[in-house]
Write a structure and sequence with these properties.
Elements lengths: L1 H18 L26 E6 L8 E3 L2 E5 L4 E6 L5 E6 L9 E3 L4 E5 L4 E6 L11 E2 L9 E3 L2 E5 L4 E6 L5 E6 L9 E3 L2 E5 L4 E6 L5 E6 L9 E3 L2 E5 L4 E6 L5 E6 L9 E3 L2 E5 L4 E6 L6 H4 E6 L9 E3 L2 E5 L4 E6 L8 E6 L9 E3 L2 E5 L4 E5 L19 H13 L7 H13 L1
Antiparallel strand pairs: 1-32, 2-3, 3-4, 4-5, 6-7, 7-8, 8-9, 10-11, 11-12, 12-13, 14-15, 15-16, 16-17, 18-19, 19-20, 20-21, 22-23, 23-24, 24-25, 26-27, 27-28, 28-29, 30-31, 31-32
């Protein structure tokens, strides 16, 4: 019995470690940090590609599937190992915002240009809500799931909080502009940008406005909330750091054009792209002089509207020049570029890093998986394969724990034997 319990515990630990390597939403997590503790590909080796129709959204990777929206109106679920389509679900409009997977409910949530928010079961693509939730504008925001609620923006100027189980509206909050920014959730607050030039902090429970942070232009960028600071870009060409508690401006840094890219924040470093064609690394700390704020910048051949994914001390980001760039995240390095690959234009689609692979979709409907699963007969599988069985292992572990029954006390058995002898 002790051996079974130890094995079950080991499976639980393995499962939790693998779940931490998923990329279940835009920006990796509800805080939109853009960071994964997954390993990452060292070369441009391609494991597989999947061909769809029209531009792809940013992908989400969870369990054994890659979830990605498409301009053809479908949400696609792709097998993470071999790139084969498992199922697809058709909406009434383009699906250009990244989906979000909630492992607790086994549901994937996403919005569509048909003005609706959908919830589907990840296993089979069947609707999890009786009806999708209807807004009054195209939904280009990626949902955040926290505390039993789905938080999402719409171009009807509202931010919505929906019940994660049935899609009922808990509350909605009105801004004065379109909301294409994806909400971040931290410390009971929802942080989101609007085309009214502001970033809002909203009470996650009741939808009340706590405060707003002003910028000089539209905020299409999605905030990252790390260490009590809100990091976000604006079309006024600046990257901002606001105090999450009181709304004070901590610092702002000028780039050479609009900042539609959403920052990734890792270990006091902010990584972000700009339409000036550069990828920036900034010092995230508060009291740094402006002239020392930038740690490095790297030039690409066109606008960088894509948002960075950081893993394994590498920055993964795409440019409109058609390349996926993989840059060394550190300072004082000899060669900034680890590798790059010509994938074609991506629009605002961003990479996801999970299970030691990087996934990214393009404007021409091609989804790439970079990395290697190893090679065995029958397909590309290898050392990463264990992650595909995580859910099953976790269920097995929990089942094993429930089967453990304490032995009956020895005294009871002895007394029963004595009684039989007396008869």
């Amino acid at each position: 019995m002790k051996t079974i319990a130890a094995f079950a515990l080991l499976l639980c630990v393995t499962a939790s470690g693998a779940l931490a390597q998923e990329w279940s939403t835009f920006g990796h997590d509800a805080e939109r940090t853009g960071y994964s503790n997954s390993s990452a590909p060292e070369t441009d080796q391609i494991a597989w590609t999947f061909n769809g129709a029209g531009s792809f959204s940013s992908p989400a990777v969870a369990g054994d599937k890659v979830f990605i929206g498409s301009e053809d109106g479908y949400l696609h679920a792709i097998n993470v190992i071999n790139g084969k389509e498992v199922w697809k679900y058709q909406t009434g409009g383009e699906v250009l915002a990244s989906p979000t997977v909630d492992n607790d409910n086994n549901i994937v949530y996403f919005g569509s240009n048909d003005n609706r928010v959908y919830a589907l079961y990840v296993d089979n693509g069947k609707p999890a809500w009786q009806n999708p939730h209807i807004t009054l504008g195209a939904v280009l925001s990626s949902p955040a799931v926290a505390g039993g609620k789905v938080f999402i923006g719409s171009t009807d100027n509202y931010v919505y909080a929906l019940n994660a189980n049935d899609g009922r509206e808990n509350w909605k909050f009105e801004t004065r502009g379109k909301v294409t920014s994806s909400p971040a959730v931290a410390d009971g607050k929802v942080f989101v940008g609007s085309w009214d030039n502001r970033v809002y902090a909203i009470n996650a429970e009741n939808g009340e406005n706590i405060r707003s942070y002003p910028t000089g232009d539209w905020v299409k960028s999605s905030p990252a909330v790390v260490g009590g600071r809100v990091y976000v870009g604006s079309n006024d060409w600046y990257v901002y750091s606001f105090n999450a508690e009181n709304g004070d401006l901590v610092w702002k840094f000028p780039t050479g054009s609009h900042v539609e890219s959403s920052p990734a924040v890792v270990e006091n470093r902010v990584y972000v792209g700009s339409n000036d064609s550069y990828i920036y690394s900034l010092d995230a700390r508060d009291n740094v002089p402006l002239e020392n704020r930038m740690l490095w910048k790297y030039p690409t051949g066109d606008r960088v509207q894509s948002s960075p994914a950081v893993a394994d001390n590498k920055v993964f980001i795409a440019s409109q020049d058609g390349y996926l760039y993989v840059l060394n995240a550190g300072e004082n390095v000899g060669d900034r570029v680890c590798w790059k690959y010509p994938i074609g234009k991506v629009g605002m689609a961003s990479p996801a890093v999970a299970y030691g692979k990087v996934f990214i979709g393009t404007s021409r409907g091609k989804l790439y998986c970079f990395g290697s699963w190893g090679s065995v007969a029958g397909g590309d599988i290898g050392k990463g394969v264990i992650y595909l069985f995580i859910t099953a292992l976790l269920v097995l572990a929990l089942w094993g724990l429930t089967r453990l029954k304490p032995p009956k006390p020895k005294r009871v058995r002895k007394r029963r034997k004595v009684r039989k002898k007396r008869k």
